[in-house]
Fold:
Amino acid sequence: MRTIPHWIAGGETTGASTRHGPVWNPATGEQQAQVVLAETADVDAAVAAAKKAFDGWRDVSLIRRARIMFALRDLIERHIDELSELVADEHGKVVSDAKGEVTRGLEVVEYATGIPTLLKGEFSEQVSTDVDAYSFRQPLGVCAGITPFNFPAMVPFWMHPIAIATGNTFVLKPSERDPSASNFIAQLYAEAGLPDGVFNVVHGDKVAVDAILDHPDIAAVSFVGSTPIAKYVHQRASENGKRVQALGGAKNHAVVLPDADMDFAANHITAAGYGSAGQRCMAISAVVAVGDAGDALVARLKDKAEEVKVGPGREPSSEMGPVVTPEARDRITGYVDRGQRAGATLVVDGRGLTVAGHEDGFFVGPTLFDQVSREMDIYTDEIFGPVLVIVRAETFDEAIDIINANPYGNGTAIFTSSGQAARKFQRHVQVGMIGINVPIPVPMAFYSFGGWKDSLFGDTHVHGPEGIRFYTRAKAITSRWPDNEYHEHHRAHLHFPTAT
Ligand code: NAD
Structure:
């Protein structure tokens, strides 16, 4: 059995790890590798390497850091097929989708190439007589990232290029379900000229996560994953005095108004609901159909769901692959069982789907429920699978109230031809990322990504300007260079200093 090692101080190592986790091929149902699961000593080794590298790295000029990001950018582009296939093979998503995630990650590297401009400080001349004031931002030290299985390339890219370009060193603890992309990126960083120890990868489970949260030499933790773990990470790392941003789960609603173009809405909701088998934090998982929109939409969504081509991620004709593990498949089909028992109308049933030649793969077909009530667990819970639920609302105001009553607030979308309705929606909906006739409104790398309510614990969103702020802290300098001549404004007073 192939073993996937850690990447510490510029090379592969299995360190102190004796425990392993399975890495599946979700399309065949076979275990393809095992990943080492870190002990606390492995996290200690990675943090020690990152700490040792920090003093040298923070002294590297901005322009040289930018050039390493440019080199990394070119290497990713050159290896994009390989990296996308690696993601598809371990996650299960189709290669074209994996390529999309790598491309969105690449955009953050491109943003980070602008670090000399992004880190420009402020300067005010003559704030008092002969006194200047200025400010700049400095790195924090060793930063850590803990990331989920569903975007094994893109989500870590939200963090490490910004942390590293701003002068920090980094320890990444990726998901143990699809670990290989992170080692691949580590190799590309090394090839791009990043010094050893600036970027490290430690694979593992709760043992590794807790060791990160408690480590005295880690200054900041970025987490992306499910809400209960995000809450836990935020609390434990905050108690230990760290800066924390912890992005959690989601239940993203799409509101469809009767004036929407129904074919357009159905096409986009189908893609956003079933792409990556619904395993996206920005997937549309609940549709709020307002008034007459309901019946027109359900008929179209049914047709579209039945047309989705489900198959292995490596097959170019596949539009949707399997889910990540057998446990994920069983959890998702369990929700479908309960939704049916609770009385929702099962319009399309994806249970029991088999793919010829891949009978043991973890496949669940697109599933559509109508007439879902808000007490059912298919509505209240994040299913994280290809299950779309439709809730009916009488009015637009009721649709907004439904979204605002939901504990999650990651993304949402409205389908309408009314500018007034769209503007009302963007003003009143309590959600961090909003799409107007755009179903998956993932902000570009030069904006910041983050939800509200139970979808984010901490103040700052990831990447973009908020990412720069998260990985740096400000210094404000007040400076005077008096000459030897006496001036009244150089005289010291015991009263609190004011500008002269
Ligand atoms: P997860 O919470 O199970 O795991 C995320 C990370 O936490 C992994 O690295 C995992 O090893 C670690 N972890 C798991 N259980 C732990 C525990 N008990 N103690 C300490 N660490 C633990 O999430 P997942 O299943 O890998 O990913 C799917 C979830 O991530 C979904 O809820 C999805 O919405 C969310 N997600 C959110 C965003 C966002 O931007 N808000 C983006 C992607 C995914």
Summary: The first helix runs from residue 40 to 59. Residues 146-151, 155, 173, 175-176, 205-206, 209, 224-226, 229, 247-250, 281, 382, 384, 410, 451, 455 surround nicotinamide-adenine-dinucleotide (CB under 6 Å). The chain has a mean pLDDT of 97.
